[in-house]
Structure formats: structure tokens, C-alpha cells
Amino acid sequence: MPTDDFETLDRWRAGDRAAGNELLRRHFDGLYRFFRNKVDEGVDDLIQRSFLACVESKDRFRKQASFRTYLFTVARHELYRHFRRSRRMAETEDVGEKSVMDLGTSPSRVAAQRQEQRLLLRALRRIPLDLQLAVELFYWEGMSTAEIAEVLEVPQGTAKSRLRRAREALEEQMRALAESPSLVESTLAHFDQWAAGIRAELGPRGGEAED
Predict the structure, then answer these.
(1) What would the pLDDT profile of 65-82 be if each residue is shown by its tens digit?
(2) CA–CA separation, 11 vs 34, rounded Å?
């Protein structure tokens, strides 16, 4: 039987490198998806930073949540720290209110097979990061609104409202970006299907655009 993630983390903290490799193997794909649609480069570095931060901050973690929500919470902090550092942002600026396009990044190598998915990916990068995260955690990682609230460190009601606002913002962006109204309607009609389908495209071996 696989050991509990927190037990594995404790073994890693105690110096068991094999435990660290096991934890990375279990959760690598999820973190890869998390970072890949938001940064141009440095995904592996951000994954490594997230795992090391888990080791350092574990004593401050509230045990009510799962290891996975803890890990994605740490990853979110690492992502925001990355943007603050790379964009030389003031501490008073709210990273979550900006889109990845506003932040000067466009992960162009992420591709998708269907035009509905390509439209949705483009729209995701143009909505505020806090809203983008809510959508991706819900559709790609299968998190509940309670789990999303843990990752975003907000009340569950706020997480629910962010999902609703994200759908509205995505529709607005898709209507602005789409070459035809029929493409928007096709995407909206099967939104859950298209959003969930992108998950496979963003794995370590997912679709990459050709140079």
C-alpha cells in the first residue's frame, strides 16, 4: 500500500532522497500542468522550488486539508513570487488581478488539437490569474470548490463566485478572439468537455506547437 503523502514528506525532510523522488513522481504531472499554461520557461525550476518549499513550510501547514491542496497552495505562492521577481512588481500590486498576458508571458508552445480548445486556452491567458487558477483547478485537477478555496486561501463562497466570474470572463474574451460566432457557441455549448479535454494536452508529453 502506498504511504501517505505527508509521511513520505516527513521521510524526505529526514534525509530520505528516495522519498523525495517518490513524492515528485506522484505529483509531477499536476504541477507541470499548473505552471505550463502560465510561464514561457522555467517550469521544471518552479516545480522544484515548490517541492522544496513544501519541505520548508510543512510545520506551518493546517492539517485540515489534503497534501495535494497544500502542494498547490505552495505552488501558487511560488508562481506569484516568480511573477513579482521577474516583473519587479511592488508588494502592493495584486498579481492575481492580472492575466498572464498582462504579466508579459505567453506560453506559445502549448498547443491543442481542436479549435475550441485553442480558443479556450487563448481566453484563459487573458483573464485575471485568480480566475484562471479557479477554472484550471476545477476542470484539470478535479478539485471541489472547498479544495479550490484552500488553494486560493479564500472562503468557499468566494471560490464559487470566482468560478462563475471566470466563466463570464472567458465568454467575453472568446467572443473578442473568435473568428466566427459559431466557434464561440460551439465552445460554450460543450464548455465542460473542452475545458477538461485540454488537461491531456498540458501533460509532460502533451501537445506542443512546432517551432
Answers:
(1) 688 898 999 999 999 999
(2) 25
Kindly report, residue by residue over 82-99, the tens digit of the pLDDT.
998 887 776 778 899 999
User: What are the angstrom distances between the C-alpha of 4 and each of 1, 13, 48, 58, 66?
Assistant: 9, 14, 20, 14, 10
- Which run of H or E residues covers position 177? helix 156-177
- DSSP per-residue codes, 18-40: HHHHHHHHHHHHHHHHHHHTT-S
Domain 5-201: CATH superfamily, name plus number: PhyR, sigma-like (SL) domain (1.20.140.160)
Q: What is the pTM of this model?
A: 0.83
| CA–CA dist 49, 61 (Å, integer) | 17
